[in-house]
């Protein structure tokens, strides 16, 4: 496989595409240039093709073992965490991970035999057919078998703080997709490296699991915390960058509020925001908000929220206008600005979609592939 050349998405910030052996087929690693050296945010999964892509990207950007000083992991899922150990062995860089994710990584490695029994019992209690549950457990066995635990050098603790590599970058705890998920934010440059917290085209996968009490409540609280941050560029782990002056979660405003009302039994949103006004921003320092911008039809949406129609090449045109071209323009029958070569079929009925997903899970498990 030919490696995709790194793309500079902002001065001193580069996107390195790292392939995955399962959907969505690639994950972004972010190279940040700093006065003291380079910082890598996320690494990809440890496979030969991923190692090659990351090594090639580093070489093209002039990254050396001596210049790479820090690796920051947004969370401990294998497509973000898997190459951190080999990267540290190559460079000597210090690896930073939130303490909650370090607990999770240890459990992924050491506790899966016991957790597997609990997962199987939860499948049965939830009415999952035996053949589907067995396929999902086999797929999980392969994923957990790929984890190799290592001791991080720096444990991030609390809700927010300065990135160990400095340069004005901060980390913010955003649990939901994973209990110790963090995003990386530069307040002056208004850049947010979102990890899997906010994704432009697919769901961040907030589901019931064994590792937290209420991940949906955690996720909604995290969105509320981020949505007032002034942001011009959101860099997700899967999919293209999202441009346009605004707020980190402003484009998700309607769906979280509706979900909050449902989650709270109709009690209303957890916190109201004064439209177009100024409000204190949570984080290491107090900041003031600009007026609310017009909604961008290219912005990410939560499942169930109305998505305004936009021209097929709108995402590409917006990137070109901003001087960034992370993906080639879509050809006929492809998703605009998304993964080249992936056709966009007509949407199936809900019943057909469920049958298709169950079938894919079984087939992927039989082939030894992951399914998302």
Short summary:
The chain has 372 residues and is an alpha/beta fold.
Features:
about 375 residues; alpha/beta; single chain; 13 strands; 6-stranded mixed beta sheet; 7-stranded mixed beta sheet
What is the tally of beta strands?
13
Q: In terms of structural class, how would the helical and strand content be classed?
A: alpha/beta
Strand content: 15-25%
Distance between the termini: 22 Å
The largest sheet is: 7 strands, mixed
Stretches where pLDDT falls below 50 for ≥5 residues? 250-346
Indicate the overall shape.
globular
Helical amount? 25-40%
The H/E string reads EEEEHEHHEHHHEEEEEHEEHHH
CA radius of gyration is 20 Å
Question: What is the averaged pLDDT score?
Answer: 74
Tell me the number of helical segments per DSSP (H or I, 4 or more residues long).
10
- State the strand order across the main sheet: 1-2-3-4-5-6-7
């Amino acid at each position: 496989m030919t490696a995709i050349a790194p793309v500079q998405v902002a001065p001193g910030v580069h996107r390195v595409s790292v392939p995955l052996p399962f959907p969505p087929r690639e994950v972004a690693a972010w190279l940040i240039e700093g006065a003291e050296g380079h910082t890598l945010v996320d690494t990809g999964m440890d496979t030969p093709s991923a190692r090659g892509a990351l090594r090639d990207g580093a070489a093209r950007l002039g990254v050396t073992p001596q210049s790479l000083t820090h690796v920051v992991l947004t969370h401990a899922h294998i497509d973000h965490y898997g190459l951190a150990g080999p990267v540290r062995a190559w460079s000597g860089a210090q690896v930073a991970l939130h303490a909650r994710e370090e607990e999770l990584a240890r459990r992924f490695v050491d506790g899966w035999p016991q957790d597997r029994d609990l997962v199987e019992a939860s499948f049965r209690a939830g009415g999952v057919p035996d053949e589907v549950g067995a396929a999902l457990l086999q797929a999980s066995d392969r994923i957990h078998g790929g984890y190799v635990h290592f001791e991080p050098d720096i444990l991030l603790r609390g809700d927010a703080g300065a990135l160990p590599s400095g340069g004005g970058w901060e980390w913010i705890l955003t649990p939901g997709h994973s209990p110790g998920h963090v995003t990386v934010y530069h307040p002056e440059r208004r850049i947010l490296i979102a990890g899997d917290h906010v994704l432009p085209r697919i769901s961040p996968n907030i589901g019931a699991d064994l590792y937290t009490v209420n991940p949906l409540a955690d996720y909604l609280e995290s969105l509320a915390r981020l949505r007032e941050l002034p942001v011009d560029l959101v860099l997700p782990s899967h999919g293209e960058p999202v441009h346009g002056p605004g707020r980190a979660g402003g484009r998700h405003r309607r769906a979280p509020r509706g979900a909050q009302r449902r989650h709270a039994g109709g009690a209303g949103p957890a916190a109201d925001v004064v439209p177009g006004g100024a409000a204190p921003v949570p984080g290491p320092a107090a900041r003031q908000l600009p007026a609310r911008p017009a909604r961008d039809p290219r912005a990410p949406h939560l499942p169930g929220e109305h998505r305004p129609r936009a021209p097929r090449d709108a995402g590409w045109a917006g990137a070109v206008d901003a001087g960034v071209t992370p993906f080639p323009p879509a050809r006929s029958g492809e998703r605009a600005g998304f993964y080249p070569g992936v056709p966009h079929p007509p949407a199936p009925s809900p019943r057909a979609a469920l049958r298709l997903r169950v079938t894919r899970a079984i087939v992927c498990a039989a082939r030894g592939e992951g399914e998302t």
